[in-house]
Specification:
Blueprint: E1 2-6, H1 12-22, E2 26-30, H2 41-46, E3 54-57, E4 60-63, H3 65-76, H4 83-105, H5 107-127, H6 138-154, H7 162-172, H8 175-180
Parallel strand pairs: 1-2
Antiparallel strand pairs: 1-3, 3-4
The structure holds glutathione.
Length: 182
């Protein structure tokens, strides 16, 4: 069974949400980061940087939430993807994990970056329900999880981006999201 190592209110939620969507049995191992459980030798063997999320699938260990999402999609997503389709999923996963997360969470550049990211995203989501079109995909986990952190953690005013507000609401109503991102 896949082991998912996480901490309270950590990015392990993103991976947990996807494991729930895929309906894969998994064991969630909650590390007490306040006492440094993530810095103990046994965990550092899995992730030398001492960060969560990290998974172990059989004897294969993997860290970085984006890499884990793409691995799970490739192994358990049930679809044969072309190189281009796989690249598009990587594009959105890296966008969520890096460009979007930086734009949202780095306070110093937020005022400048946020409109540049949110306006095109709002436009895209006003045309179709999900990032890739009418079908939910791992791209929605990667991008949606970062967007969901806005109402959860930052309380930014999203009134100018109604399609994003609807998207966040729709994703938050998914049973898997409720378990993963809670
Ligand atoms: N880019 C990484 C970020 C991992 C990360 O920074 N995780 C935090 C929790 S959200 C952590 O483990 N922090 C512990 C530490 O830095 O000591 C990912 O998406 O997996």
């Amino acid at each position: 069974m896949i082991k998912l190592y996480g901490g309270a209110r950590s990015r392990a939620s993103i991976v947990r949400w996807y494991l729930e969507e895929l309906k894969i049995p998994y064991e969630f191992i909650l590390l007490d980061m306040s006492t440094g459980e993530h810095l103990q030798p046994d965990f550092l063997k899995l992730n030398p940087f001492g960060k969560v999320p990290t998974i172990v699938d059989g004897d294969f260990a993997l860290f970085e939430s984006g890499a884990i999402l793409l691995y799970l999609n490739q192994k358990y997503g049930g679809k044969e993807l072309s190189i281009e389709q796989q690249a598009i999923l990587s594009q959105w996963t890296l966008f969520g994990n890096s460009t979007l997360a930086t734009g949202i969470f780095v306070e110093a550049s937020r005022a400048k970056e946020l409109p540049k990211l949110m306006a095109p995203l709002n436009e895209l989501l006003s045309k179709h329900a999900y990032i890739l079109g009418d079908e939910f995909s791992v791209a929605d986990i990667a991008v949606g999880s970062i967007l969901i952190y806005i109402p959860l953690m930052l309380k930014l005013d999203l009134a100018a981006y109604p399609a994003i507000v609807n998207y966040i609401q729709a994703l938050s109503n998914r049973p898997a999201c409720k378990v993963g991102m809670s």
